[in-house]
Amino acid sequence: MSQPLVIFDLDGTLLHTAPDLLDSLNHTISSMELAPVTFDDITYLVGSGARVMIDKALQLRNNPVSAEEFEALFALFLTHYSASMPGRSEPYPGVLDAMARLEDAGYALAVCTNKTEIMAHRLLELTGLMPRFKAVTGGDTFAVRKPDAGHIHGTIDMAGAHPSLAVMIGDSVNDVQAAANAGIPSIGIPFGYSDTAMENLGPDEIIGHYNELTPELVGRLLERV
Ligand SMILES: O=C(O)COP(=O)(O)O
Ligand SMILES: [Mg+2]
């Protein structure tokens, strides 16, 4: 029997990355002389990967660009973001203890993020967290990404786990929806980057702090499946 698996989203769930994402995004759009976006825009901008984030920022500033210009902006973002890592990004309060509790209880851990795979790996390497995860998949690892069930199922496969013994933890509609599409339970955290209140997204559980993320809670969710 495979190990039960707890899958974390990355931006806004495992790590508070918004200040660094914002810096790199503003560096990127300033190349087009566009006014910076603000921290309040983050809940709208983050959650579907850097391409969507840049696209939404351009829409906010009413500044459509050609496909070629867009690729140049995306490259500029990746270069700046990669060079700035780990920047000010840090784990949310209590998440490292929660990970340790789950590991001690026999759970394996994985990350399923819409960040590009190379950025997710680099950030987790630089924060020292990479060795903790059986699999880390990004928005470009497979042909599909969250909210598509295939992203979750691909992550579970890579971790050597089984969908009947996996739980997803995330901060946005993409996470809750991907879990529902994949037929696995979800835990929503309300302190990340979502422009819809977590209780309206319908996860199986909501935790207000990582001290509520216990092996007992995950075990209960898995029994319910
Ligand atoms: O960076 C993003 O837009 C999405 O990242 P997440 O899936 O880890 O929340
Ligand atoms: Mg997120």
Automatic annotation (TrEMBL):
UniProt keywords (A-Z) are:
Carbohydrate metabolism, Hydrolase, Magnesium, Metal-binding
Extract the Pfam families matched here.
Answer: HAD_2
GO CC term (a single one): cytosol
Give the enzyme's EC designation. Answer: 3.1.3.18
What are its GO biological-process terms?
Answer: carbohydrate metabolic process; DNA repair; glycolate biosynthetic process
Name the catalytic site residues: D9
InterPro entries xref list: HAD-like_hydrolase_sf (IPR050155), HAD-like_sf (IPR036412), HAD-SF_hydro_IA (IPR006439), HAD_2 (IPR041492), HAD_sf (IPR023214), PGP-like_dom2 (IPR023198), PGPase_prok (IPR037512)
Q: What chemistry does it catalyse, as a reaction equation? A: 2-phosphoglycolate + H2O = glycolate + phosphate
Q: What span is annotated as the signal peptide, if there is one?
A: none
Please state what the protein is called. Phosphoglycolate phosphatase
* Organism, as annotated: Hoeflea prorocentri
Taxonomic lineage from the root: Bacteria, Pseudomonadati, Pseudomonadota, Alphaproteobacteria, Hyphomicrobiales
